[in-house]
Amino acid sequence: GSVVASYPYDDSPTHKPTGVYSKSADDEVFRYLAKAYASNHPIMRTGKPNCPGEEEETFQDGITNGAQWYDVEGGMQDYNYVWANCFEITLELSCCKYPPSSELQQEWENNRDSLLAFLEKV
């Protein structure tokens, strides 16, 4: 896990494991929506999720193009965009895939304003 808003494309023509910006035709819209979410999240907006084992990983403005972060072939986000004209971003909300229930209230607090801002934009 991480704390970042990722947007299409997750796959790239070169299929290099990382570092390839794979721009979609609607790149500006995706960046706008991802940034709307990230800029309202207290951790995501810093661009420094500080996840254990990945402390040096950073994301400018708390967002990333999927393939630039790491290439994923056949992902749902890209499939829905290409074949169903459905605009999706992927929200990585925690370094921990399964946070304990004692942390869920804080996760809600971290994401409430981001969710509302995102809904307003779409």
UniProtKB/TrEMBL annotation:
Active site, per annotation: 92
GO biological process, one term: peptide metabolic process
PROSITE patterns from the UniProt entry: PEPTIDASE_M14
Keyword Protease: yes
Keyword Protease recorded: yes
Protein's name in the database: CBPD Carboxypeptidase
SUPFAM superfamilies, A to Z: Zn-dependent exopeptidases (SSF53187)
Peptidase M14 domain boundaries: 1-122
Gene3D superfamilies: Zn peptidases
GO molecular function, one term: zinc ion binding
Domain of life from the UniProt record: Eukaryota
Keywords attached to this entry: Carboxypeptidase, Hydrolase, Protease
Organism: Bucco capensis (collared puffbird)
Family: Belongs to the peptidase M14 family.
Any Gene Ontology CC annotation: extracellular space
